[in-house]
Design brief:
- The complex is a heterodimer.
- In chain A, helix 3 packs across helix 4, helix 3 packs parallel to helix 5 and helix 8 packs across helix 11.
- Chain A is 36% helix and 19% strand.
- Chain A folds into two domains: 188 residues, 3-Layer(aba) Sandwich (Rossmann fold); 66 residues, Alpha-Beta Plaits, CATH 3.30.70.
- In chain A, the strands form three sheets. In chain A, strands 4-5-6-1-7-8 form a six-stranded mixed beta sheet, sandwiched between helices. In chain A, strands 10-11-9-12 form a four-stranded antiparallel beta sheet, with helices on one face. A two-stranded antiparallel ribbon of chain A has the order 2-3.
- The longest helix of chain A has 18 residues.
- Chain A has eleven helices and twelve strands.
- Chain A is an alpha/beta fold.
- By secondary structure, chain B is mostly helical.
- Chain B has two domains: 47 residues; 241 residues, no CATH class.
- Chain B starts with a helix and ends in a 5-residue tail after the last helix.
- The chains are: A alpha/beta, B mainly alpha.
Chain lengths: 312, 325
């Protein structure tokens, strides 16, 4: 098996389309596409899967030209779209098994693969229930199970963990990591969840209005934009406004109800926190967090106009 | 430990420390120790970031230059037969959940029409009776295979849910044919009930009713083909729904009203409709002597329509991903 290369450059037409994107993803890499709604993330994935033709540019998947042969991706990759309506009337187990059969597994192999992935994702309690009767999160998890079954070399996932509870989310992340570690599976996923991007991705491309505005490891991206740290303060009651530290923080904070978010260099943050925790404001302080830059900060620093990224 | 995990570990712990210190009336010494601990956590986080950068950049992934070249061998696609079987079985499993109530509706509609017309048609008028029963029976197929299938494909397409099939290594024709076959199967119980009840109601012989089977296949395939083509070709979901409804109504009128009672001009339309040939075969089944040559020709017409429409639907399915939404 050889690595995976992809270049895509679509012409500048509609607002939602991808515009001149160049990306290379290596085999066994967990690669993320991060960006706000309407940035072109889904369009990019659908082009890769041969679902829509790019107006210009080329996509190469394991040496195959996807633009010329849109049937190639289905042989090499599994896709999780945002819609699961095609399966909604099927019981979970049946949906997974049918998908395995459609990926070419024999009856026995499909059942074995179904049982394995159902166990892996903790779906056993709902295996006989129709997907439409499940909660949004369980339903999404069942769709993920359908995508994982049948062992493809590449997994292309459009927001795989949206709506999942933290336990299920970690089960999905582990399942992806396991496939990468044991079989060299390449994962390409869209997310607008910063925690997901920082936890599971080897590299991340930040998309804004159809263009890649940054592409690197999460760590290097964060290191590149700023040495500032973020200080979040949560008040249990109004802090004493006459306190000079409070007054200074209030001027620069982004205030959201009782939560203040400020960005400053590490020394200033340490100093401010020391003053807060030893001064009169401490009694009003409910909680605080001090953190190095997140991918959200990267995104904002790179000129991302939208603030729709999720932090948790 | 990754940087993200370090933040997660540091944040809540530090927060809890503040909480505890606050409850103890906040002695200054404790508060300072909280601040120190926070600073430590911050340093650890920064170290973790450095480490993770080093690890990740050290690992390295093959770049474009290294991997471009000869394509890897493709894993085989799923065979037509296996894909057809899986789609058909999957769709049949749906029936238990969603389609059973609609089957009742489909059968009741036809039974109602036959009851209604029983009051109008003379019992002795065999040609008309045959036509009413045969037309009502085929109407069940039109309701399920044409109308419901057009709606189903239209809705799947509008929701972008066809991506599911389009990203599996299966021939589009297997998806269309498997789905069409399952919808035609949904219609079979309703057809049998309608034909038997109709025969009893209008005093027609039941002996020729084994012809129901080839009729079900022929009418099912051709009407499901039309339904699939409508659902996949209609520019909008609403149009697919409306076209499916109209299609069913046309089958109703042109199938149940005897050909010699239709106004001039309309009778030409009757010949264009594949369901007509299915109705004619079934109507013939109630007569003492069956014209086998005509039966074969009629069934072949249905098969031809089925082939053309299912082919059109398969091509439309392949293009469905490119449709704007």
């Amino acid at each position: 098996m050889r690595g995976l290369t992809r270049r895509h450059g679509a012409g500048e037409h509609a607002v939602l389309a991808t515009a001149g994107i160049d990306l290379d993803v290596g085999q066994g890499e967990v690669f993320g596409v991060l960006g706000p709604n309407g940035a072109g993330k889904t369009t990019l994935l659908r082009q890769l899967m041969g679902l829509i033709r790019p107006d210009a540019g080329s996509i190469t998947l394991f040496g195959w030209d996807v633009v010329a042969r849109p049937d190639i991706p289905s042989r090499l990759a599994a896709y999780l779209g945002q819609h699961d309506m095609a399966l909604e009337d099927l019981p979970v187990g049946r949906a997974v098994e049918t998908t395995a059969r459609l990926r070419g597994l024999g009856r026995g192999a499909a059942r074995a693969a179904r049982d394995a992935v159902i166990d892996e994702l903790g779906l056993a309690p709902v295996v006989t229930r129709p997907m439409r009767q499940l909660s949004g999160g369980q339903r999404r998890l069942a769709s993920v199970a359908c995508t994982l079954v049948g062992d493809r070399m590449v997994l292309v996932l459009d927001e795989p963990t949206t709506g999942l509870d933290p336990t299920a989310r970690r089960a999905v992340w582990s399942a992806l990591e396991r496939r990468r570690a044991t079989a060299g599976v390449t994962v390409l996923l869209v997310t607008h969840n910063v925690l997901e991007a920082e936890t599971v991705l080897d590299r991340v491309a930040v998309l804004e209005a159809g263009r890649v505005i940054a592409c690197d490891t999460p760590g290097r991206l964060k290191a590149s934009v700023s040495s500032d740290v973020r200080l979040d303060l949560v008040w249990r009651r109004d802090p004493p406004a006459q306190d000079p530290t409070i007054a200074r923080l209030a001027r620069q904070a982004e205030i959201n109800g009782r939560r203040w978010t400020t960005r400053m260099d590490a020394a200033a943050a340490r100093d401010a926190l020391a003053r807060l925790t030893s001064g009169p404001a401490f009694a009003a302080l409910d909680d605080f967090t001090l953190a190095t830059p997140s991918l959200e900060d990267v995104y904002l620093a790179l000129g991302g106009a939208s603030r729709t990224l999720e932090r948790t | 430990m990754t940087a993200a995990a370090a933040y997660e570990a540091a944040g809540p712990a530090a927060g809890r420390a503040v909480d505890a210190a606050g409850q103890a009336a906040g002695p200054a010494a404790e508060a300072v120790s909280v601040a120190e601990r926070t600073a430590d956590a911050l340093d650890r986080s920064a170290g973790a970031v450095d480490r993770s950068v080093r690890q990740r950049s050290g690992g390295g992934f093959p770049g474009a230059a290294e991997v471009a070249g000869t394509p890897v061998p493709l894993p085989p696609g799923t065979s037509f037969g296996a894909a057809l079987g899986a789609v058909y079985a999957g769709q049949l499993a749906r029936a238990r959940v969603a389609r059973v109530p609609l089957l009742f509706v489909a059968a009741f509609q036809s039974l109602g029409i036959m009851l209604l017309l029983r009051g109008v048609v003379d019992a002795g008028n065999e040609t008309t009776s045959e036509q009413v029963v045969a037309g009502s029976t085929v109407l069940v197929v039109a309701f399920v295979a044409l109308n419901l299938l057009a709606q189903r494909f239209g809705a799947l397409r509008a929701a972008g849910a066809l991506d599911y099939y389009l990203t599996l290594p299966v021939p589009g024709s297997a998806v269309v044919l498997g789905t069409a076959a399952s919808y035609a199967s949904f219609a079979l119980p309703g057809m049998i009930v309608t034909a038997v009840v109709g025969s009893l109601l209008y005093g027609l012989p039941l002996s020729g009713l084994w012809l129901l089977l080839p009729v079900a296949v022929a009418a099912g395939a051709s009407l499901a083909g039309i339904g699939a083509a409508i659902g996949l070709l209609a520019p909008r979901q609403e149009l697919a729904t409306v076209a499916g409804q109209i299609g069913m109504s046309v089958v109703l009128f042109l199938g149940i009203i005897p050909a010699d009672r239709l106004p001039l001009g309309i009778d030409v339309l009757r010949d264009l409709l594949p369901s007509t040939y299915a109705v004619d075969v079934l109507a013939g089944a109630f007569r003492p002597s069956v014209d086998w040559g005509m039966v074969v020709v009629d069934l072949l017409v249905c098969a031809l329509v089925a082939f053309v429409t299912l082919l059109a639907a398969s091509i439309a399915l392949r293009r469905a991903g490119n449709a704007p939404r």
